[in-house]
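Predict structure. Chain length: 145.
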Amino acid sequence: MSDRQPLTRASVCDGYVEGVVLKEKNGRFTVRIEGQGAACNGCKACALHKNRQTVTAKAAADCAAGDRVLLKAPPSRPLFAILLLLVLPIACMGGGMGVGYAASLSEPLWFLAGVLGLAAGFVPALLLDRLVLSEKNRYTIVGRY
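Prediction complete.
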């Protein structure tokens, strides 16, 4: 770490978690996240990790297998998640029902068109999550101990 400030245990509870690098492949690191133990100030930043979990991280600092590192958690986007997983499928359901109405179908077929629209709304949501968002929402290795 050349121009970065030294890492301290107190910085762990500011959206950062500690881990150990297990392996590196193509510039991506597999890191085992560890519980904070005595360094924990009770912020619950590590609550989702259940003491041990492996994650894929990109590196902003030099590290190798076996290094203890500090990881920056990906940004939280609750409004975008609600939009992606609720609003988009429900809008597609409404669109399916609208198509059923415009085609002068009976009410059971409106319902079926709405269900098909709902299912079709989850497809772009899942593809967007897998292909685009999962790359942006990776942990970042910001330093090592």
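Summary: The first strand starts at residue 16 and ends at 25.
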